[in-house]
Design goal:
Shape: globular
Order of helices and strands: EEEEEEEEHHEHHEEEEEEEE
Structural class: alpha+beta
Strand content: 25-35%
Helix content: 10-25%
Oligomer: single chain
Protein backbone atom coordinates (compact mmCIF):
# COMPACT_ATOMS: atom_id res chain seq x y z
CA UNK A 1 0.00 0.00 0.00
CA UNK A 2 1.20 3.52 -0.81
CA UNK A 3 0.55 6.58 1.35
CA UNK A 4 0.08 9.88 -0.48
CA UNK A 5 -0.14 13.40 0.88
CA UNK A 6 -2.19 15.96 -1.02
CA UNK A 7 -3.53 19.42 -0.33
CA UNK A 8 -6.51 18.35 1.80
CA UNK A 9 -6.20 14.56 2.09
CA UNK A 10 -3.98 11.68 2.96
CA UNK A 11 -4.66 8.95 0.40
CA UNK A 12 -3.86 5.26 0.86
CA UNK A 13 -3.66 3.38 -2.42
CA UNK A 14 -3.99 -0.41 -2.63
CA UNK A 15 -4.25 -1.44 -6.26
CA UNK A 16 -7.76 -0.60 -7.49
CA UNK A 17 -8.81 0.61 -4.03
CA UNK A 18 -8.13 3.94 -2.34
CA UNK A 19 -8.92 5.37 1.09
CA UNK A 20 -9.24 9.16 1.27
CA UNK A 21 -8.60 10.61 4.74
CA UNK A 22 -9.80 14.19 5.10
CA UNK A 23 -7.20 16.39 6.83
CA UNK A 24 -9.82 18.93 7.95
CA UNK A 25 -12.87 16.90 9.03
CA UNK A 26 -11.02 13.66 9.80
CA UNK A 27 -13.46 11.52 7.81
CA UNK A 28 -12.54 8.31 5.95
CA UNK A 29 -14.03 7.67 2.50
CA UNK A 30 -13.35 4.67 0.26
CA UNK A 31 -12.92 5.44 -3.43
CA UNK A 32 -11.70 3.82 -6.60
CA UNK A 33 -7.96 3.70 -7.23
CA UNK A 34 -8.33 5.79 -10.38
CA UNK A 35 -9.66 8.72 -8.29
CA UNK A 36 -6.07 9.52 -7.32
CA UNK A 37 -5.98 11.61 -10.50
CA UNK A 38 -8.44 14.02 -8.86
CA UNK A 39 -6.13 14.77 -5.92
CA UNK A 40 -4.20 18.02 -5.82
CA UNK A 41 -0.49 17.31 -6.38
CA UNK A 42 -0.28 14.00 -4.45
CA UNK A 43 3.17 13.10 -3.14
CA UNK A 44 4.01 9.51 -2.15
CA UNK A 45 5.35 9.41 1.41
CA UNK A 46 6.16 5.69 1.43
CA UNK A 47 4.63 2.25 1.85
CA UNK A 48 2.50 0.83 4.67
CA UNK A 49 0.87 -2.56 5.30
CA UNK A 50 -2.58 -1.59 6.51
CA UNK A 51 -4.88 0.68 8.48
CA UNK A 52 -5.92 -0.17 12.03
CA UNK A 53 -8.34 2.77 12.14
CA UNK A 54 -8.54 6.30 13.46
CA UNK A 55 -8.60 7.60 17.02
CA UNK A 56 -9.14 10.92 18.81
CA UNK A 57 -7.08 11.15 21.98
CA UNK A 58 -8.86 14.24 23.34
CA UNK A 59 -12.13 16.00 22.44
CA UNK A 60 -10.15 19.07 21.35
CA UNK A 61 -7.44 17.21 19.42
CA UNK A 62 -7.26 16.12 15.79
CA UNK A 63 -8.12 12.66 14.57
CA UNK A 64 -5.12 10.37 14.06
CA UNK A 65 -4.69 7.44 11.74
CA UNK A 66 -3.07 4.29 13.09
CA UNK A 67 -1.02 2.85 10.22
CA UNK A 68 0.78 -0.50 10.16
CA UNK A 69 4.38 0.08 9.07
CA UNK A 70 5.97 -3.24 10.07
CA UNK A 71 4.52 -6.73 10.28
CA UNK A 72 5.70 -10.33 10.26
CA UNK A 73 4.05 -13.42 8.84
CA UNK A 74 3.67 -16.18 11.43
CA UNK A 75 2.08 -18.83 9.21
CA UNK A 76 -1.24 -19.88 7.72
CA UNK A 77 -4.34 -20.62 9.80
CA UNK A 78 -7.47 -22.53 8.78
CA UNK A 79 -5.68 -23.93 5.75
CA UNK A 80 -4.68 -20.99 3.58
CA UNK A 81 -5.24 -17.70 5.44
CA UNK A 82 -1.91 -15.97 6.08
CA UNK A 83 -1.69 -14.49 9.58
CA UNK A 84 0.36 -11.40 10.42
CA UNK A 85 1.59 -9.97 13.71
CA UNK A 86 1.70 -6.17 13.91
CA UNK A 87 5.25 -5.19 14.86
CA UNK A 88 5.07 -1.42 14.51
CA UNK A 89 2.51 1.32 13.93
CA UNK A 90 2.71 5.10 13.51
CA UNK A 91 0.15 7.76 14.36
CA UNK A 92 -0.59 10.16 11.51
CA UNK A 93 -2.47 13.33 12.57
CA UNK A 94 -5.32 14.24 10.22
CA UNK A 95 -4.54 17.94 10.15
CA UNK A 96 -3.09 20.51 7.80
CA UNK A 97 0.08 20.79 9.87
CA UNK A 98 3.32 19.82 8.23
CA UNK A 99 3.72 16.03 8.27
CA UNK A 100 6.43 14.86 10.64
CA UNK A 101 8.93 12.14 9.77
CA UNK A 102 7.04 8.81 9.67
CA UNK A 103 10.02 6.57 8.89
CA UNK A 104 8.08 4.65 6.23
CA UNK A 105 9.45 2.08 3.84
CA UNK A 106 10.48 3.73 0.58
CA UNK A 107 8.20 3.13 -2.39
CA UNK A 108 10.02 1.33 -5.20
CA UNK A 109 7.77 2.95 -7.79
CA UNK A 110 8.09 6.57 -6.68
CA UNK A 111 11.32 6.71 -4.65
CA UNK A 112 13.72 5.05 -7.07
CA UNK A 113 17.24 6.24 -6.34
CA UNK A 114 16.30 8.14 -3.16
CA UNK A 115 18.51 7.30 -0.19
CA UNK A 116 17.50 9.99 2.31
CA UNK A 117 13.88 9.71 3.45
CA UNK A 118 13.85 13.36 4.57
CA UNK A 119 14.11 14.35 0.92
CA UNK A 120 10.49 13.26 0.42
CA UNK A 121 8.55 16.44 1.04
CA UNK A 122 5.66 18.23 -0.56
CA UNK A 123 6.30 21.56 -2.23
CA UNK A 124 5.36 23.76 0.67
CA UNK A 125 4.17 27.15 -0.61
CA UNK A 126 0.55 26.24 -1.33
CA UNK A 127 0.41 23.97 1.70
CA UNK A 128 1.62 26.76 4.00
CA UNK A 129 -0.91 29.18 2.54
CA UNK A 130 -3.74 26.70 3.13
CA UNK A 131 -2.49 26.04 6.65
CA UNK A 132 -2.42 29.76 7.41
CA UNK A 133 -6.01 30.15 6.20
CA UNK A 134 -7.19 27.15 8.21
CA UNK A 135 -5.50 28.38 11.37
CA UNK A 136 -7.19 31.76 10.93
CA UNK A 137 -10.59 30.06 10.67
CA UNK A 138 -9.96 28.00 13.81
CA UNK A 139 -8.76 31.06 15.68
CA UNK A 140 -11.86 33.06 14.75
CA UNK A 141 -14.14 30.16 15.69
CA UNK A 142 -12.80 29.97 19.21
CA UNK A 143 -15.02 32.30 21.24
CA UNK A 144 -13.29 31.49 24.50
CA UNK A 145 -9.55 31.30 24.66
CA UNK A 146 -8.50 28.17 26.57
CA UNK A 147 -6.50 28.65 29.70
CA UNK A 148 -2.83 27.80 29.61
CA UNK A 149 -3.29 25.20 32.35
CA UNK A 150 -6.00 23.44 30.33
CA UNK A 151 -3.75 23.29 27.28
CA UNK A 152 -0.89 21.94 29.39
CA UNK A 153 -3.11 19.24 30.89
CA UNK A 154 -4.38 18.32 27.42
CA UNK A 155 -0.83 17.97 26.07
CA UNK A 156 0.21 15.80 29.01
CA UNK A 157 -2.87 13.61 28.60
CA UNK A 158 -2.27 13.17 24.85
CA UNK A 159 1.39 12.35 25.41
CA UNK A 160 0.59 9.70 28.02
CA UNK A 161 -2.10 8.03 25.89
CA UNK A 162 0.14 8.12 22.81
CA UNK A 163 2.98 6.44 24.69
CA UNK A 164 0.66 3.73 26.02
CA UNK A 165 -0.85 3.15 22.58
CA UNK A 166 2.52 2.83 20.87
CA UNK A 167 3.73 0.54 23.66
CA UNK A 168 0.75 -1.79 23.12
CA UNK A 169 1.50 -2.17 19.42
CA UNK A 170 5.27 -1.68 19.11
CA UNK A 171 6.59 -3.23 22.34
CA UNK A 172 4.06 -5.84 23.48
CA UNK A 173 3.26 -6.88 19.89
CA UNK A 174 0.04 -8.65 20.83
CA UNK A 175 -2.13 -7.68 17.83
CA UNK A 176 -2.79 -10.00 14.88
CA UNK A 177 -4.82 -9.97 11.68
CA UNK A 178 -5.36 -11.76 8.41
CA UNK A 179 -6.59 -9.96 5.27
CA UNK A 180 -8.58 -12.96 4.02
CA UNK A 181 -9.85 -14.99 7.00
CA UNK A 182 -11.61 -14.75 10.35
CA UNK A 183 -9.48 -14.98 13.49
CA UNK A 184 -12.29 -13.98 15.85
CA UNK A 185 -14.39 -17.13 15.48
CA UNK A 186 -13.40 -20.65 16.46
CA UNK A 187 -13.61 -23.44 13.90
CA UNK A 188 -16.76 -24.76 15.59
CA UNK A 189 -18.58 -21.43 15.23
CA UNK A 190 -17.47 -21.09 11.63
CA UNK A 191 -18.95 -24.50 10.80
CA UNK A 192 -22.42 -23.58 12.11
CA UNK A 193 -23.92 -22.69 8.74
CA UNK A 194 -27.20 -21.48 10.26
CA UNK A 195 -25.44 -18.78 12.30
CA UNK A 196 -22.27 -18.20 10.27
CA UNK A 197 -23.21 -16.73 6.88
CA UNK A 198 -20.24 -17.23 4.57
CA UNK A 199 -21.90 -15.16 1.84
CA UNK A 200 -21.20 -12.00 3.86
CA UNK A 201 -17.89 -10.17 3.98
CA UNK A 202 -15.47 -11.39 6.66
CA UNK A 203 -15.85 -8.30 8.85
CA UNK A 204 -19.66 -8.72 8.82
CA UNK A 205 -19.53 -12.21 10.34
CA UNK A 206 -16.79 -11.79 12.96
CA UNK A 207 -17.31 -12.27 16.69
CA UNK A 208 -17.92 -8.77 18.02
CA UNK A 209 -16.21 -9.57 21.34
CA UNK A 210 -12.79 -9.89 19.70
CA UNK A 211 -13.06 -7.19 16.99
CA UNK A 212 -10.62 -4.84 18.72
CA UNK A 213 -10.50 -2.02 16.15
CA UNK A 214 -14.23 -1.92 15.44
CA UNK A 215 -14.76 1.50 17.02
CA UNK A 216 -11.83 2.92 15.04
CA UNK A 217 -13.43 1.92 11.72
CA UNK A 218 -16.95 3.26 12.27
CA UNK A 219 -16.72 5.61 9.27
CA UNK A 220 -16.23 2.62 6.97
CA UNK A 221 -18.49 0.16 8.79
CA UNK A 222 -21.36 2.64 8.69
CA UNK A 223 -20.80 3.42 5.03
CA UNK A 224 -23.21 2.01 2.46
CA UNK A 225 -20.49 2.03 -0.20
CA UNK A 226 -19.38 -1.50 -1.10
CA UNK A 227 -15.82 -0.24 -1.63
CA UNK A 228 -15.49 0.49 2.10
CA UNK A 229 -15.37 -3.21 2.99
CA UNK A 230 -11.91 -3.56 1.48
CA UNK A 231 -10.47 -1.40 4.29
CA UNK A 232 -12.23 -3.08 7.23
CA UNK A 233 -9.67 -5.59 8.52
CA UNK A 234 -10.55 -6.98 11.99
CA UNK A 235 -7.61 -7.00 14.41
CA UNK A 236 -7.51 -9.24 17.48
CA UNK A 237 -5.44 -8.88 20.63
CA UNK A 238 -3.88 -11.93 22.24
CA UNK A 239 -1.36 -14.45 20.98
CA UNK A 240 -1.06 -16.70 17.94
CA UNK A 241 1.58 -19.34 17.34
CA UNK A 242 1.69 -21.70 14.37
CA UNK A 243 4.18 -24.56 14.26
CA UNK A 244 4.80 -27.49 11.95
CA UNK A 245 5.40 -30.62 14.04
CA UNK A 246 6.83 -33.99 13.08
CA UNK A 247 5.85 -37.40 14.41
CA UNK A 248 8.91 -39.53 15.01
CA UNK A 249 8.95 -43.09 13.63
CA UNK A 250 8.32 -45.97 16.04
CA UNK A 251 11.30 -47.92 17.30
CA UNK A 252 11.31 -51.54 16.17
CA UNK A 253 13.23 -54.65 17.26
CA UNK A 254 16.94 -54.12 17.74
CA UNK A 255 16.55 -50.36 17.85
CA UNK A 256 15.70 -49.99 14.17
CA UNK A 257 13.26 -47.25 13.20
CA UNK A 258 10.02 -48.21 11.49
CA UNK A 259 9.44 -45.56 8.83
CA UNK A 260 5.82 -44.64 8.23
CA UNK A 261 4.48 -44.51 4.72
CA UNK A 262 4.25 -40.85 3.71
CA UNK A 263 1.08 -41.33 1.69
CA UNK A 264 -0.99 -43.45 4.07
CA UNK A 265 0.40 -42.08 7.32
CA UNK A 266 1.61 -38.47 7.14
CA UNK A 267 4.38 -37.73 9.63
CA UNK A 268 3.80 -33.98 9.88
CA UNK A 269 0.98 -31.95 11.34
CA UNK A 270 0.36 -28.28 12.07
CA UNK A 271 -0.27 -27.15 15.62
CA UNK A 272 -1.88 -23.74 16.14
CA UNK A 273 -2.71 -21.84 19.31
CA UNK A 274 -4.95 -18.76 19.10
CA UNK A 275 -5.74 -16.75 22.24
CA UNK A 276 -8.36 -14.06 21.75
CA UNK A 277 -8.84 -11.36 24.36
CA UNK A 278 -12.26 -9.75 24.59
CA UNK A 279 -12.42 -6.02 23.99
CA UNK A 280 -15.18 -5.68 26.61
CA UNK A 281 -14.00 -4.78 30.12
CA UNK A 282 -10.35 -5.33 29.34
CA UNK A 283 -8.00 -3.78 31.85
CA UNK A 284 -5.38 -4.30 34.51
CA UNK A 285 -6.06 -7.62 36.19
CA UNK A 286 -6.32 -6.42 39.79
CA UNK A 287 -8.23 -3.24 38.93
CA UNK A 288 -10.84 -4.74 36.61
CA UNK A 289 -12.90 -7.48 38.25
CA UNK A 290 -16.26 -9.21 38.12
CA UNK A 291 -19.18 -8.92 35.73
CA UNK A 292 -21.29 -6.04 34.42
CA UNK A 293 -25.05 -5.71 33.81
CA UNK A 294 -24.67 -7.16 30.30
CA UNK A 295 -22.99 -10.34 31.56
CA UNK A 296 -19.52 -9.41 30.30
CA UNK A 297 -16.75 -10.46 32.68
CA UNK A 298 -13.42 -8.72 33.06
CA UNK A 299 -10.39 -9.96 31.13
CA UNK A 300 -12.21 -12.66 29.19
CA UNK A 301 -9.91 -14.78 27.01
CA UNK A 302 -10.76 -17.59 24.61
CA UNK A 303 -7.91 -19.98 23.71
CA UNK A 304 -8.25 -22.39 20.80
CA UNK A 305 -5.85 -25.24 20.07
CA UNK A 306 -5.99 -26.53 16.49
CA UNK A 307 -4.35 -29.63 15.04
CA UNK A 308 -4.35 -30.04 11.24
CA UNK A 309 -3.34 -33.57 10.26
CA UNK A 310 -3.71 -34.43 6.56
CA UNK A 311 -7.44 -33.83 5.79
CA UNK A 312 -8.41 -33.83 9.46
CA UNK A 313 -8.82 -30.75 11.65
CA UNK A 314 -9.33 -30.93 15.43
CA UNK A 315 -10.12 -27.92 17.60
CA UNK A 316 -10.27 -27.59 21.39
CA UNK A 317 -11.46 -24.35 23.03
CA UNK A 318 -10.90 -23.12 26.59
CA UNK A 319 -12.21 -19.89 28.12
CA UNK A 320 -11.27 -17.93 31.21
CA UNK A 321 -12.45 -14.74 32.85
CA UNK A 322 -13.04 -13.00 36.13
CA UNK A 323 -15.46 -14.58 38.64
CA UNK A 324 -18.92 -13.62 37.24
CA UNK A 325 -20.29 -11.69 40.23
CA UNK A 326 -20.23 -8.02 41.18
CA UNK A 327 -17.02 -7.67 43.16
CA UNK A 328 -13.94 -5.50 43.59
CA UNK A 329 -10.49 -5.95 45.02
CA UNK A 330 -7.98 -3.49 46.47
CA UNK A 331 -4.35 -4.28 45.85
CA UNK A 332 -2.79 -7.51 44.65
CA UNK A 333 -3.31 -9.49 47.87
CA UNK A 334 -6.48 -11.03 49.28
CA UNK A 335 -6.20 -8.96 52.47
CA UNK A 336 -8.59 -7.27 52.90
CA UNK A 337 -10.84 -9.90 51.29
CA UNK A 338 -12.59 -9.09 47.97
CA UNK A 339 -15.88 -7.27 48.46
CA UNK A 340 -19.23 -8.08 46.82
CA UNK A 341 -20.74 -4.81 45.61
CA UNK A 342 -24.30 -6.00 45.00
CA UNK A 343 -26.57 -8.49 46.70
CA UNK A 344 -27.12 -11.92 45.25
CA UNK A 345 -30.70 -11.00 44.41
CA UNK A 346 -29.37 -8.74 41.64
CA UNK A 347 -27.22 -11.43 40.06
CA UNK A 348 -28.87 -13.06 37.07
CA UNK A 349 -27.26 -15.85 35.09
CA UNK A 350 -28.49 -16.29 31.54
CA UNK A 351 -27.82 -19.22 29.30
CA UNK A 352 -27.76 -18.68 25.56
Amino acid sequence: MELYESKQHFIIQDGDHALWCDRIRGSLVAKSGTDLCDAWNPVCLGCIHGVVGKIKLHPDSDWRLILITERSSIGHAYGHHEVFRINKVVLLPLSLDETSELDLELCKKHHFGIQNKSAIRTSGMQQKALLKTWNSIKSAAGNVKPRRKDMKDKDKFEKRITEELLKMFNVLQSFYYTPTGDLTNSIQRQLHKEEYDTTKAVWQRVDDRFFWNKHMLQDLIGSKDSKAGHWVIPVIQGHIQIEMCKIQGEEGPGGSTIQQTAIRHPTKFQFTVISRRSRHRAGTRYKRRGVDEDGKVANYVETEQIIEFAPHVVSYVQVRGSVPVYWTQTGIKYRPPPRLNKGTSLIVIRRS
